[in-house]
Amino acid sequence: MEKVAILGAGESGTGAALLAKSKGFQVFLSDRGTIAPAYKQTLTTNGIVFEEGKHTKEDILDAQLVIKSPGIPDTVPLLQEIYGKEIPVISEIEFAARYTDAKIIAITGTNGKTTTSLLTYHLLKENGVNVGLAGNIGDSFAKSVLEKAYDWYVLEVSSFQLDNIQDFKPHIGLILNITPDHLDRYQNDMMLYAASKYGMTRNMGTEDTFIYNENDALTLSLLKKNPLTTTSLSFATKDYDGEALYIDEEVYTELPLRGPHNGMNMSAAIRAVLTTGEVSVVQVKEALRSFKNTEHRLEEVGKKSKVLFINDSKATNVEASLYALQSFQQPIIWIAGGVDKGNDYGQMEETVKQHVKAIICLGKENEKIKNAFQSIIPDISETEDIRIAVQLAIEKAGGQEVVVLLSPACASFDLFRNYEDRGQQFKEAVQAIL
C-alpha cells in the first residue's frame, strides 16, 4: 500500500487526508502546530493516523508521496530533506484534481480572487450548472471531490498552491493581476512570484482558455515570453465605466458590485462563465441581479485612499478568523477580540505572522490575544470603542495599501448585542470617515 504523508492539518490537509484514505493510501498526517478540535475529530472519526506539535521524520520520510499545506515554505529543513530523498511533494489541489473528471475554472491573482470566484460560481449555479466551489474558499478541493461529483469546479487558487502542481490543468485559467506580495516566499524576487501565478497555465493546451488582464504589465510580459497555445481572452479597465460593463458588444447594467476593481472582477467572471458554453448572455444578466456578498462575512465596507475595510463580524471563532486572514494578499490591520470562547490562538500563529501588520483589540478583556501575539506582532492596541478602532486603523495604515479586517474570533456580547450589531456599528464608523 502506497503511503502518503500530509503536512498540515488545516482545511486543505484534512481534506487531502480524507480523499487519500478513500483511495486506498496509507495516510499519516503531521502538524507542527496545534490541530483545531473540529479537524482532529474528523481525523479521529475516519481512522486517520496523525500527530500534532511535532514532525516525526521517520514517519514522513518513508512516504512515497507528500502533500503539503500551502502555508509551509519549501525552505523549511524538513521539506529540504524530503526533496533530498526525491519524494514527490504536491499541493492538495494537484492531488484532488487527479480524482475528478470535472472541468476546472481556476482563478488566481494578487487581488480580487475571492470576489471573482464567488461571482463566477454564482452565475453558473443560478443557471442550473452542476458546479462546486473550492480551493482557497469554502471546503477544500479534495474534500469536495470526495463528497460529490460535479461537472464544473470554480477554484480560487493561490501562488502557494500553484507552487506544488505537476499535472494540474484548468479548462479555463484566469489571472486577475500580479502585484508585489509574499516576496519573502520568493527570495524577494517579483518574477519568481509572477512565475508561480503563471505556472497555472503550464499544462493548458489548445482545448483550454486563458483569461487575462490586458492592463497588467507582468501578465503581459509572461504571456509574451511564454506564449500559450490556448484560446486567449482579455479583460480591461475600459470594460467598466462606473455604471455598466461592456463585453463583446453586450452591455451589462444592474451590476451587483461597484468600484473599478470590482468592474475588473465582474468582467473576468462573466468572460469565464460565457466561455463554459453552459450559460447565455441573457442568463448572465439575470443572475447578476441576485448576487450579493454575504453581510458581515468578508463584506467590503469601503475604501479610503489605499485602505480597504472588510466587515467579517460573523467570524466568532478562531477557525472563521483564520480563514478570513488567509483571504487577502495585502497586509492586514486586524481588529479582533470580544468574549473569548476558550480560543486556542496557537493555530493562528503562522498565518498572523505572515499576514498581519498590526492588531487592534476590541473588547473588555484582551490579555489572551495580546499574550498570544505580542511576540510576533509588536504593534498591538486596544479600545472598547469601535469608532476609535477605525481611526486607529487609519493611523496604523500609514498611507500604505492595507486591509482593515474586523474578524473578531470571539463572541460580541461584551460590547454589542450580537455579531450583526457589531458589524453594523463597524460599517457606520467606516462610512463616517469616508
From TrEMBL:
Keywords on record: ATP-binding, Cell cycle, Cell division, Cell shape, Cell wall biogenesis/degradation, Cytoplasm, Ligase, Nucleotide-binding, Peptidoglycan synthesis
SUPFAM superfamilies in UniProt: MurCD N-terminal domain, MurD-like peptide ligases, catalytic domain, MurD-like peptide ligases, peptide-binding domain
Does the record's keyword annotation contain Nucleotide-binding? yes
- Per the record's keyword annotation, is Cell division included, yes or no? yes
* Catalysed reactions, as listed in the record: UDP-N-acetyl-alpha-D-muramoyl-L-alanine + D-glutamate + ATP = UDP-N-acetyl-alpha-D-muramoyl-L-alanyl-D-glutamate + ADP + phosphate + H(+)
Q: What is its EC number?
A: 6.3.2.9
InterPro entries in the record: Folylpolyglutamate_synth_CS (IPR018109), Mur-like_cat_sf (IPR036565), Mur_ligase_C (IPR004101), Mur_ligase_C_dom_sf (IPR036615), Mur_ligase_cen (IPR013221), MurD (IPR005762)
Chain ranges of the Mur ligase central domain: 107-272
Query: Where primarily located?
Result: cytoplasm
Q: Please tell me where ATP binds in this chain.
A: 109-115
- Stored PROSITE patterns: FOLYLPOLYGLU_SYNT_1 (PS01011)
Q: Which GO terms describe its molecular function?
A: ligase activity
Q: In which pathway does it act?
A: Cell wall biogenesis; peptidoglycan biosynthesis
Query: Mur ligase C-terminal domain spans which residues?
Result: 296-408
Subcellular localization, per the record? Cytoplasm
Family to which the UniProt record says this protein belongs: Belongs to the MurCDEF family.
Q: What does this protein do?
A: Cell wall formation. Catalyzes the addition of glutamate to the nucleotide precursor UDP-N-acetylmuramoyl-L-alanine (UMA).
Q: What is this protein called?
A: UDP-N-acetylmuramoylalanine--D-glutamate ligase
Gene source species: Algivirga pacifica
Q: What gene, per UniProt, encodes this protein?
A: murD
